[in-house]
């Protein structure tokens, strides 16, 4: 068995990983630390030939990997998770440079390792449909071939490993395409993977905006798993149509939290506040809209304000308890800034915040003051759109369950939703009427490797994780064995 020292890697230089070899490119680019605006170490800019080389290596590796027993595939995934753990602080420090306070970066790496190890325990078994004297009928799940994970900037380690694990466990070869805003950590994770998996099974390509279209158009790629915005997801789906690639799309969210009048405010308010401002609102399943019963609205809102006052925002250099990051990049900063501009334009009432920290404070990066909008109109932009930043509407509901369900479902999105109540029967009754792929009661963002994750409506199609997620990396194949009776 290899020792942990066998899995130590250099964290100062960054390469593509093709067929388990580190490859440079003629051109490089640099991402930006959003908390300091300093450039990160340069990373490759892949060419079309790099894409072809990686796909060819994956295609060549696939037959042998497909035929590797699942327990052996699982063991290598588990070893990979242990190898990441052996480099834990190095990965967390690098992730911090890509946009998070050290505490938040450590949380993400730790959660990603646990999720990956949970994935390794899953097994996709054949299903027996009929077993009689005449015939045996089974449904089998066979891997697709070469798959690609297109990973966003907000949780680049967790979401990347959340695609890699199921893909390779199911028997596919996998190419990781990181966001141009957060490429460094991904490249190092795959460099580490190259020490563990056979050549061509796990690869990584960094690049500019043309890299994604090259991958979605490539005829030898069988699946694209994409996490990102709904508009970009539609483009990915359209690009995959010409080659009939399988597509999993995990897109935007506008998650509702419904708070009933019987909750314990001291217990619930801090949990809801964290669920709303986690990662500065840059999480698809952050709470984006809160509907609070009018009987407790004022107390709940006051509690939210006090909770937000305790939040410590910071960046890669903040080691004194900061957990909430800046907005990750300049593009997203401008989008969120435009939403903040609507506060005065639309006459919204901030209960706290309302300002751009980068302009009003001492911090240099892409910071906003966390902001709560007090009971805006239901049709206002802050309610209908996902800001993907630290700004949140809180609205009243009057106790009519039909009405609050209508309000919660009044969106094109349907990723997650939660109901908060001491009456669990009532909470479940309300939750089951919500149009969202993940429902939580008295919690939110409670994610697990063995639970499928996907959205309704324009929040996506298909699922990651769990047995259903594994099936998404496979062809469905029926097998009928005629025991007697001859050919029909």
Automatic annotation (TrEMBL):
The keyword Oxidoreductase applies. It catalyses: an aldehyde + NAD(+) + H2O = a carboxylate + NADH + 2 H(+). The keyword Oxidoreductase applies. InterPro entries: Ald_DH/histidinol_DH, Ald_DH_C, Ald_DH_CS_GLU, Ald_DH_N, Aldehyde_DH_dom, LUC3-like. Pfam families: Aldedh. Keywords: Oxidoreductase. Its EC number is 1.2.1.3. The active site is at residue 250. Belongs to the aldehyde dehydrogenase family. This is aldehyde dehydrogenase (NAD(+)). It comes from Neurospora tetraspora. The lineage of its organism: Eukaryota, Fungi, Dikarya, Ascomycota, Pezizomycotina.
């Amino acid at each position: 068995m290899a020792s942990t020292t066998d899995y130590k890697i250099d964290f100062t230089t960054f390469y593509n990983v093709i067929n388990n070899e580190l490859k440079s490119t003629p051109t490089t680019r640099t991402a930006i630390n959003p908390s300091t605006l300093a450039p990160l170490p340069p990373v490759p800019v892949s060419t079309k030939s790099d894409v072809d080389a990686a796909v060819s290596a994956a295609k060549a590796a696939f037959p042998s990997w497909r035929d590797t027993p699942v327990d052996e595939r699982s063991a290598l995934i588990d070893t990979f998770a242990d190898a990441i753990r052996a480099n834990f602080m190095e990965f967390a420090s690098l992730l911090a440079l890509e946009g998070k306070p050290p505490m938040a970066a450590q949380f993400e790496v730790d959660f990603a390792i646990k999720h990956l190890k949970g994935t390794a325990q899953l097994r996709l078994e054949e299903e027996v449909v009929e077993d009689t004297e005449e015939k045996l009928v089974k449904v089998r799940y066979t891997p697709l071939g070469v798959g690609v994970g297109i990973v966003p900037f907000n949780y680049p380690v967790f979401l990347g490993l959340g695609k890699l694990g199921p893909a390779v466990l199911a028997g596919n070869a996998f190419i990781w395409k990181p966001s141009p805003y957060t490429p460094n950590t991904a490249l190092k994770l795959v460099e580490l993977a190259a020490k563990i998996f056979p050549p061509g099974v796990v690869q990584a390509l960094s690049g500019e905006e043309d890299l994604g279209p090259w991958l979605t158009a490539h005829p030898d790629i069988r699946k694209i798993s994409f996490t990102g915005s709904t508009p970009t997801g539609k483009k990915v789906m359209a690009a995959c149509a010409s080659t009939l690639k399988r597509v999993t799309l995990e897109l935007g969210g506008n998650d509702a939290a419904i708070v009933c009048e019987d909750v314990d405010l001291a217990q619930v308010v801090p949990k809801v506040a964290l669920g709303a401002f986690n990662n500065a609102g840059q999480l698809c399943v952050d709470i984006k809209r809160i509907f609070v019963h009018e009987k407790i609205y004022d107390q709940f809102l006051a509690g939210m304000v006090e909770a937000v006052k305790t939040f410590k925002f910071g960046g890669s250099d903040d080691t004194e308890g900061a957990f909430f990051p800046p907005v990750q990049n300049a593009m997203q900063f401008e989008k969120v800034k435009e939403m903040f501009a609507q506060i005065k334009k639309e006459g919204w009432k901030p209960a706290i915040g309302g300002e751009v920290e980068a302009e009003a404070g001492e911090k240099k990066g892409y910071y906003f003051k966390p902001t709560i909008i007090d009971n805006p109109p239901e049709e206002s932009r802050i309610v209908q759109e996902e800001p993907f930043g630290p700004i949140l509407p809180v609205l009243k509901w009057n106790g009519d369950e039909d009405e609050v369900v209508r309000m919660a479902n009044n969106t094109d999105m349907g990723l997650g939703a939660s109901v908060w109540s001491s009456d669990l029967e009532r909470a479940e009754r309300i939750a089951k009427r919500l149009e969202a792929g993940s429902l939580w009661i008295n919690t939110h963002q409670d994610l697990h490797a063995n639970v499928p994750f996907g959205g309704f409506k324009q929040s996506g199609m298909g699922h990651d994780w769990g047995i259903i997620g594994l099936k998404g990396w496979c062809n469905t194949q029926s097998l009928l064995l005629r025991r007697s009776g001859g050919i029909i």
